[in-house]
């Protein structure tokens, strides 16, 4: 039995007093009761609905102002689908978010087109170099001579301006976009390949706003300085009508946070949001969002991380960086798991495709390429479920013996190996058909535009086949490695071949 001393009595009293104080502090600082939570929710909902209503009114008012200001303007511009100077297919949607200066001409023009393009270049440089505006203008040169102007013809277009975009296409595509811009053009009749000729066309360039709407047109007699002043005025009007409203919307929400919740951490976080009002919509950002929101694109990124990390780990271990190599290996494990889970969703497109193809062609359709695809889909219907069964067993989600798990994994990869072999066969058949189409292609009479379009299509098809061959060359050693028990294929080899396949996929 311990003795009771004055020190123990004081210590016990202080402990009890501290416990009482802590309970009172916790009680007083309890953040919400049910009543306060309900009141907070009702207030927040009311404010949200009010400001949503006010925002809708502002948008409607802005729309009415734009419609009243655009009344009487000609309908110029519209959707298009053309080939740029890099050989890529582009549409009008790719240029949203930028002011455009659009000029129609042809690369063989001796004097007028170069003069007008110099004018477009000067206007673009004057405006884009303004620190208050920034890079807001994109110059575009659309060819009205599709017979001679392939995308290779624009090889020197950057000599005018580094941001200038050259666009061409078939005669029908050019005629359609020229009609939408009210541009006249004509070439001499009975022109043969190799003939020198001039194209008669309208001499205007057009200012289009970031929403793809027509703003103004400038003729040959208008000087570059006059165009610059005019374009700056239109840009200012556009920002005053649209940019200010966008900023006010953002700032108003920041004001709510700062005044209703003055001590909330959100008040500090809300201030930087006002910066978003100073940026324009970006087609590049749209493409990135679209890329990362698709399963194949995400799998491509994860695949590069998974396989390249093996190569990186090998170099780090040789350099004595074992600690860093271990951390990278720890990153590779969840990436591999995520890829397996993503492939679960790949089953549904396969099943949908098989059902659709049988309804469209029927089971009796005897087509070699189609039959190879049928066999490939069948291998995937074995490969994917077996891989998921292996993963569930390996992660001990389902109970399987190590021998059973190893066997399931090997058979999964064997079906994958069969798929890759079938893909080599599929590509060989496609390449033979492509070679035959190239032999049958002949330049005949005035049908030069069709021939050039088919040549571009054949080149694109050949590039695709070559890229898929490289992908399969990368994956085939991996399928053999994981299909054989006790394979001696080094891990760095898996990384190298996997990185090649992932890069071209």
Automatic annotation (TrEMBL):
Q: Where would you say this protein principally sits, based on its record? A: membrane
The entry's Cu cation-binding residues are 109, 113, 201
GO CC field: mitochondrion; peroxisomal membrane
Q: Which UniProt keywords apply?
A: Copper, Disulfide bond, Membrane, Metal-binding, Peroxisome
SUPFAM superfamilies with a match to the protein in the record: Thioredoxin-like
Q: Please, which domain of life does this record's source organism belong to? A: Eukaryota
- Record keywords: Transcription regulation included? no
Q: Name one Pfam family in it.
A: PEX11
Nucleotide-binding in keyword set: no
Q: Which GO terms describe its biological process?
A: mitochondrial respiratory chain complex IV assembly; peroxisome fission
Where in or outside the cell it occurs: the entry states: Peroxisome membrane
Q: Which InterPro entries match?
A: PEX11 (IPR008733), SCO1/SenC (IPR003782), Thioredoxin-like_sf (IPR036249)
Disulfide bond sites: 109-113
Q: Which GO terms describe its molecular function?
A: copper ion binding
**Coiled-coil spans in chain:** none
Report the PANTHER family cross-referenced here.
AT19154P, ELECTRON TRANSPORT PROTIN SCO1/SENC FAMILY MEMBER
Q: Which family does it belong to?
A: Belongs to the SCO1/2 family.
**Any idea what this protein is called?**
4887_t:CDS:1
**Per the UniProt entry, what species is this protein from, by scientific name?**
Dentiscutata erythropus
Read off the lineage from the record. Answer: Eukaryota, Fungi, Fungi incertae sedis, Mucoromycota, Glomeromycotina
